[in-house]
Batch of 2 targets.
Target 1
Amino acid sequence: MTLLAALALLSVVTAVTCSLPGVFLVVRRQSMLVEAMSHAVFPGIVIGALVSGSTRSPLMIVLATVLGLVIVVGADKARQSGLVTADASQGLIYPVLFAIGVALLSTQLSSVHISENAVLAGELNLLALPTERWIIGTTDLGPQAMWPLLLLLVIDALFITLTYRVLVVSAFDPNLARTMGLPTRTVNMALMVLVSLTVVVAFNTVGAILVVALMIVPPATGRLVTNRMGWLIFVSLAIASVTALLGLWVAYLGDLATAPMMAFTDGVVFLIVLLVTRLVASRRRALPA
Amino acid sequence: MAVLSIRDLTVAYQQQLALADACLDVEEGRIVALLGPNGAGKSTLLKASVGLLSTIRGEVTFFGRKLREVRQRVGYMSQAAEVDWDFPTTVRDVVMMGRYGRRGWLRRPGAADRQAVAEALDAVGISDLAGRQISQLSGGQKQRTFMARILAQDPELFLLDEPLAGVDVASQDAIMAILKGLRAEGKTIVLVHHDLSSVPDLADDVVLLREGRVVASGPVAETFTEDTVMQCYGFQGLKSRAAA
Amino acid sequence: MTPIESLLELFGNFTFRTMILSTGIIGAVSGLLGSLLYLRRQTMISDVIGHSAIGGVALGFITCTALLGIDGRSVLTLTISAAITTAVAVLLTNVITRFSRLGSDAAMAVTLAVFFGGGLVLLRWIGHSKLPNRAGIEKYVFGNAATLTGEDLTTIAIIGVLAVAVVVVLFKELMLSAFDPVLAATMGFSPRILQPILLVTVTTGIVIGIKAVGLILMIGFVMLPAAAARQWARRLHTMTLFSAVIGGLSGMVGSILAVHLGRVPTGPIIIVVLFAAFLVSLLASPQRSVLSTWLARRRHRLAGEVAA
């Protein structure tokens, strides 16, 4: 497998795996929860790496995922207390968690290798190198880092298929879902676990901060062009794949950082689609019906 | 036996009591209007009775039993203002949501559910809007969509939070006709209501709330008087009565 | 040596004095502005400001070194470029919210993608380029108060005083527009005048902290003091004052702690101090806290039992 092919595979799988749970966050208007979570999981990654010596161990993944959920539960508690405004409740907890992560990284962890660059932008390019492949016999199965992401994608897809209706009702009218006795809380919590897991697993490829762009922007772009939930999922995944390849291509030609370029492309594509849909809408309004 | 029985229901938001020792019995086949000024605790009473708010004390029974034993017989309709009307879905899909409580985890809605949805849409007169994206609906059409949804849910007790808020005259008449039709079928309706002038026409019983307390309750003829309204609303009530 | 003597000695040292004073001013200014954002329920916008500033840092550095030929690493140049860029970022967020049916949350994510993603691309490009003085530019993401110069302190102090002055002079108008924007507009305090003033003040006031405490954690500097102050204050005047005091004190205490601990960056330690202040306020302030709510509920419950 050529380097470019491996890069393309890893980019597309990362983008698709991120944007699938992102669809539900966009329609629930909880996009910035990803931002909070991706900062909050960071000390878990640092401590997990410190204990296990690698940024890919199961222990690290579990620890970091749990910290992501601290945001969800903590924000709920803060909101229910009525003492802090609803929008502030997430933002009060994650800065301190991220701060602890940064402090740990700069003091204790000379032994563990997580560079500041990896935190900010991930190591997508390095993870696609021939030394990082999964090779069985003589078959090159692509970058090792791609497989946990693919596994997560399958779990996400299964979960969404099984709980689709409950997810949709609890997103649209949670009061109705609860009074009908649907397992709203269980399903919501499971979704949050998957979001947190996605943030953690994607850390190696895209770092802690770009993940919000990869999870939210493709579904947000999809939302501009479709009004149906089912379509939105497919359109979002398609947009994620295309922007990932486009971003990679530009980064490859210009010798620029891949993951930041993917995020930037996502943002620019959104703005172009927004502009086009607005123009079409105003043109349609200008014409007599 | 009371369809809905509430004893000493008390709810607090932070340090403020939103509902204090509310007691209420609703008989079968009646339309009960919950009245009172803003912040009197009308919506709180409905929400707390179906377990959407945590309570400090009190007991609520439906048909003499706990809610979770009789969920299918109780329908709750949220305030239209509480949901996101930009959600990517259509009128038909929203009405179909009313059927989800009857389905298990994995079963997809069947022909009977589609039939029920079609009938509900027809009953509220919005069959022609079935495929429309919900963000394009008017206030009256939104409330009709919610009415259709609870009709598709087909409960025996309807708990409606402001079903007539933000509607045009035609929709108001349509929804009131549906409510009276349901009563004729023996269903029971409890609704949060704002328009005092339509109370005698619509409701059988009224419950007047003020500052989280039930100040009066009973049949319209006896309870919905100048005195009780004055006591409940203060000066404001007189004016809207005069206007009506 | 007593703790006070060691503190005095610390203050006698030029580098430490610069650090402590700078972080104190930064904490106080962001706390002051934070109380306004907090009440307008626009707290997450401070996260967008902090993260988007990276685009400003990169653009400002390129403009200064490649085009103007001056050092692009002083607080003044960083603040100007970051303030312009983040103001554009905030405007973009508002435009997206207005012209799409997506909420402001998704709009913020799009803005982050463009400005943070784009900023990182530029930063990496600078790292590979042959521009002079490029070493250390990426450090501004996490901040390092030890690199502050006396000139930087002067800049921070002047901008800080200006931001405070704007808030003091326009306090009545800002308070009214935060509480009831429609009423404010009908009374002639046009949002067309107030909004840009607030925008420039907030972005500038927030980004002066970049070099000292980094841009990723800026949201904590803005929100934590405000949320802490809210639990103690009944009025906006007092809340704003408390917020500034909590922010300023935490900034100074955090720097002192960071110096004592050694090898730890200043920004994160200040955030931990701020969080501790917030937690204490949330749990135990006499008027508005978890404790007082619990006591009130207990009273209600006991009253019910007595009645029954």
Target 2
Amino acid sequence: MKLEGGKIAGSELVFLMIGFTLGSSLILSPAQAAKHDDWLAILAGLGEGLVFALIYTTLAVRFPGKTLIQFNDIIYGPYLGKIISLGYLWYFLQLGSLVLRNFGDFFTTIIYPETPMIVFIVLVALICASAVRNGIEVIARCSILLVVFTFVVIFGTAILLAKDMKFTNLLPVFDIPLREFIKASHSAATFPFGETVAFLMVIPFLKKVKEAKTSSIIALIMAAMLLVVVAVRDTAVLGITKTISTYPAYQAVRLIDVGKILTRLEILIAINLLSMGFLKIAVLYYGAVLGTAQLLKLRSYLPLVLPMGAFMVSLSTLQFGSNIENINFAQEIYPYYALPFQVGLPLISLLIAILRGVPKKMKGAKK
Amino acid sequence: MIILLMAAFAGIVLFETPGLIQKKYWRELIVFFMFLLLAFIVSLLQIFGAKVPNPVKGITILVKGFLSLMK
């Protein structure tokens, strides 16, 4: 019996992936450690991220119609495969809870200081739960609308801020030590780009699996361009103060003032975060729920949606004492913690699959 | 707070179980209750202010251990 009946088109995958990659990195700039060179670090991170994406899509094309959880069983055998799949499910679930926490932090520190954080987390989790219950097709279709809106907001704010920009803020280019630069670009590679490993749960539902490679490369490049626009906008407007603000995008857009009429547009950034973060959580949540259902050989993944969401919510409030702990974890620990899931295991899987010639045997058996 | 939490979890149970029982999805029902119990225990302990093991702290210790080996 099939768990997911929906099918998505290649173009929908592009939009979904852009939304996923922008996610919470729209407000927490990904390579903050590189200071005013963060746009360079994002581009370098894109290079690393493209290599990751090539590994994932090669795997996905090699096992058409099989999700990460299913082909882990084929590659590693039933026991080791299940252990590795469990690790991935944990990774998706925890990443989802981290993004939920970003929501809570952003809304409580900036917009609603008096409201308890749990309110925002529960509300966002409920929206994501309803999206996941409706299946991947629905998530992919909303992504088109939401991503186009985000495009408009990013370019619109950049144009409105043009008079406040000082491009000398970007000089001197490449001012930081190489070691720091590599660290920053690596953290940019793992924070938005490498997380696309979650798409190994989505790509199997593509109408044409062959499109996976081009779609994901286009999506990553577009997302990186948008992040570079955001980074350049923020650095050019804020200068060195960008490095001390927690949410530089919000601070920069706050300065928009066109004839004292068009002001206080910063709420657009909150809407961007809300829509893009929703896509990110929905994909991760979907991956975790569908993966668990496949691991335990259930007939439907729907009953797991709400309990897992409840667990994700309690995890997100448990994990950090404050906003600063969250950002510190994202910058110092996360780039190394994510490595085995984002590069190590997919690379080993691909090597083993090639050496054992696994999927070819399957095709021969079918014919 | 505890009453709110109970109400939320009771709501989830009432929302999901009738359909599952009608379709005789027993395996799904067991898994559903296992996950729900896990979530309920973690959130209840948090409300009581008990020290729940924090996965982020564990990850931090692991990563720092590995990094100190690399130097």
